[in-house]
Amino acid sequence: MAIDYQERIPNNVHLSENRTLQRALEQWQPHFLDWWKELGPSDFQTADVYLRTATSVDAKGWATYGTVKMPDYRWGIFLADPQEGRTIGFGDEYGKPVWQQVPGEHRSTLRRLIVTQGDTEPASVEQQRMLGHTCPSLYDLRNLFQVNVEEGRHLWAMVYLLHAYFGRDGREEAEELLHRHSGDRDHPRILGTFNEPVTDWLSFFMFTYFTDRDGKFQLKSLAESGFDPLARTCQFMLTEEAHHMFVGETGIGRVVKRTLEVMKELGTDDPASIRKAGAIDLPTVQRYLNFWFSSSLDLFGSEASSNAAAYFATGLKGRPDEAQYQDHVCKDATFDLEEPDGKGGIEHETIPLRNAMNEVVRTAYVKDCEIGVKRWNRIIQKAGHAAELALPSPHFRRSIGVWAGAPVDPQGKLVSREEHERRRAEWLPSEADRAFVRSLMQKVTAPGKMAAWIAPPERGINNLPVDYEYVHLS
Ligand code: BYC
């Protein structure tokens, strides 16, 4: 029987008319499903989950809600509508028509960018696969699964590009995306953060706030690409990404809110007492924040990068919202780079702006991260407390770039290696912190009930009540 491609794989890429692409995807799909069953959410594959599915790119179709078993989710392929007459918006090719096919000279670089992007998507699903067992509520369990199936769809989006535009090497790369695994000693995921375990929900919320936000900025940069199919794919992916960051921002906000309630009940901000009462003290929240923010900063690459300069010059990867800048060519512009001088001080180096594009994007990211921190602090202030959460300095705990390995404190001050080591547990989650947070992670699945360490959300999904049975566990 003929497969109805629109039904099985919702798409706006004329899949039913493209035999070659159908064959490639038909070969890959069973491997994807095997991967999903083996390394996707552990258990819950037979549960009915209230999920949104993209069935078209228009306002009505991009978020169609219904109850689905996850393996039956319809992973679709969508590109934002084409813009007639679109031209390359930056670099040496500025103003020339965008490419509908891959230019031969950019083939391997573009493939590398798409593979790196694609690699993060299944990685995050693997990282989060055990969280269902310790969900704080059915509402949160549903959000986890929503994020997971959409990361699965984002993988499909990149695999579509590899299959449709890169021939045999593209198909091989698509297979490799299912063979590398998060944290695997021999075949790890490409980027550092995607090999970090996410085994508790505080980490999950930090990940969706900070790491998914890297996704936002990278997708925005690729949405500017001169390779139009990539740009249009990323534009559409960004619509889904917003919910992931919402899960992170509100998740952390709800943790903070619950902690403040406990502080009020007990009349103390003593971490040990708060922990005894089953909530997460704010210094621990800060340490988790320090960990995930610093790890996510590394995802932007080195401050001075010849790769980044080449991506920009050749029109492959721009800056988020490129239109906001006056100069789209940046040929002679320079950038003042702050770096350690190797003698315990800081020095400044002037580098070509094109080489500093990773830092330009990272700086925009840091500004965006501040928004949530301000909101969490407002919750704290409203409760009458002086405590504040803060982003650590972007130079703190870096593993990539000019600050890699530099002994910097969260305020950005270079300190001695001895002090840096000694104060580590003040700044980053210790084994004891992690064990405590893990001890709170108990599964709560009665509709509307919440674990004791997190406040309920203000509202449910898609105008449904908070106590709706978002996941029906069979
Ligand atoms: N860990 O010149 P450099 C998302 C590598 S997240 C390990 O410093 P470049 C999502 C780099 O790959 C968004 N390796 O940096 C979020 C390069 O290796 P090769 C993902 C790293 O190339 C949550 C070498 O170091 N998308 O969507 O300018 C859930 C020297 O590179 C790291 C993208 O990243 C690291 N942290 O920029 C789900 C977009 N950083 O190529 C999904 C595509 C750097 O020499 N990727 N390296 O072997 C890129 O645009 C660039 O590859 C990077 C690095 C921004 C990552």
Task: Write up this protein.
The chain has 474 residues and is mainly alpha-helical. The protein is 47% helix and 6% strand. It is built from 14 helices and 5 strands. The chain has helices at 5-8, 19-39, 107-127, 138-165, 167-179, 201-222, 228-266, 271-276, 282-298, 306-313, 357-382, 417-422, 424-427, 431-440, and strands at 48-53, 64-69, 334-340, 346-352, 471-472. The strands form 2 sheets. It has a 3-stranded antiparallel β-sheet with strand order 2-1-5. Strand 3 and strand 4 form a beta hairpin. Helix 2 runs parallel beside helix 5, helix 3 (107-127) runs antiparallel to helix 4 (138-165) and helix 4 (138-165) packs antiparallel against helix 7. The protein is globular, with a radius of gyration of 23 Å. The two termini are 31 Å apart. The model has no long low-confidence stretch (mean pLDDT 96).
Bound molecules: benzoyl coenzyme A
Helical fraction: 40-55%
- Tally of contiguous helical segments: 14
Q: If you average the pLDDT, what whole number results?
A: 96
Instruction: Note the main sheet.
Output: 3 strands, antiparallel
Poorly predicted regions are none
Distance between termini?
A: 31 Å
As a percent range, the share of strand residues is: 5-15%
Provide the gyration radius in Å: 23 Å
Shape: globular
